[in-house]
Amino acid sequence: MHLEGSLSPNLLFLLAQRNDIGLPSSEDDPAFASPETLLERYAHFTSLDDFLHYYFIGMSTLVTARDFEELAGEYFKRAHSDGVVHAEVFFDPQAHTARGVEYKTVLDGFLQGCRRAESTFGMSTKLILCFLRHLPVSEAVVTFGEARRDLEAGILAGIGLDSSEKGFPPSGWQAIYQEAKDLKIKRTAHAGEEGPVEYIREAVEKLDVERIDHGIRLAEDEPLMRELAHRRIMVTLCPLSNVRLQCVERVADLPVRRFLDAGVPFSVNSDDPAYFGGYILDNYCAVQEAFSLTLQEWSTIATTAIAQSWCEESRKIAMLSELNKVMEAHSSRE
């Protein structure tokens, strides 16, 4: 889940007014006539790049640490209402530093939002720094240098790679990922969403990632699917996002059943929920409606998500204990 992707139209307009940020006029783009028309436009993305156009306009309204804290707070409140107890969330510092917003401002705001979620909701959180693949790798090197101390100290949980996928193979960031591996920093990357299955293989072989984000093209490569199953490299599926961006026509077209049958570890996630009309519970429900999973299959998915999370072992044990109680309660009703 991308924190910037939880920026609701209402908050976007509020921040634009507060920070005196000019949005496109309704003459240039009718979507910006009101929060309601913007939300309606979000229902008609034609591609990942079409979405990213609006995504980066939204980001331009985020200026102060207070803005980032409010954004995180709004998301965590909604996630808590959906029953989330642990959230590992992406953020894109390059999208802000390129506008003159300091890395420290972004991080301080998001960290405060995380602390508030922990104190208010008892929710554990982890921040994952992403590099924007449509920007030069040299800029990612600068961002990695700025964040290196926070990554080594565990203030940030790890690194990721997102933004436009087509035409930007993961191997371009190999040197950064190798350095991160040497420093024992955790690594993930978006691959195989709109891009080809070869990008997944590159991310595994060249970046030595521990997770693959999206990864729906994995089902096109049986040997690679077996390799991820054997190595327990988790795929973080985002069902409603894949439909909204027209990667698939229906949730039922996703390789959920293929992954379960092949033993590929995967979790269910919400990606950019303010833009794709689906928070985490919506995604869980969509998967259930499409595949009619059994209680045991959901137990496998949830257990995998916990086991492959990047939180402390003690937190994993606590969450697994709670999961077992829930599963036992539901099992007794069947």
Fold and architecture overview:
With 334 residues, the chain is α/β, with parallel strands linked by helices. It is built from 16 helices and 7 strands. It has helices spanning 9-18, 35-42, 48-59, 65-81, 93-97, 103-121, 137-152, 174-182, 197-205, 222-231, 239-244, 256-262, 273-276, 280-291, 295-307, 313-331; strands spanning 86-91, 124-132, 158-162, 186-191, 211-214, 234-237, 266-268. A 7-stranded parallel β-sheet has the order 1-2-3-4-5-6-7. Helix 9 links the parallel strand 4 and strand 5 (211-214). It is globular, with a radius of gyration of 19 Å. The two termini are 33 Å apart.
Quick take:
The protein is of the alpha/beta class.
What are the key terms here?
globular, 334 residues, 7-stranded parallel sheet
What is the CA–CA distance across the termini?
A: 33 Å
Mean pLDDT: 96
Shape: globular
How are the strands of the biggest sheet laid out side by side?
1-2-3-4-5-6-7
Q: Any low-confidence stretches, pLDDT <50, length ≥5?
A: none
Q: Give the biggest beta sheet.
A: 7 strands, parallel
Computed CA radius of gyration, to the nearest angstrom = 19 Å
Helix residue percentage? 40-55%
How would you spell out the order of helices and strands?
HHHHEHHEHEHEHEHEHHEHHHH
Protein structure class: alpha/beta
How many beta strands in the DSSP annotation? 7
Beta fraction: 5-15%
**Can you count the helices?**
16
Secondary-structure blueprint:
Elements: H1 9-18, H2 35-42, H3 48-59, H4 65-81, E1 86-91, H5 93-97, H6 103-121, E2 124-132, H7 137-152, E3 158-162, H8 174-182, E4 186-191, H9 197-205, E5 211-214, H10 222-231, E6 234-237, H11 239-244, H12 256-262, E7 266-268, H13 273-276, H14 280-291, H15 295-307, H16 313-331
Parallel strand pairs: 1-2, 2-3, 3-4, 4-5, 5-6, 6-7
Helix pairs in contact: 1-2, 4-6, 15-16
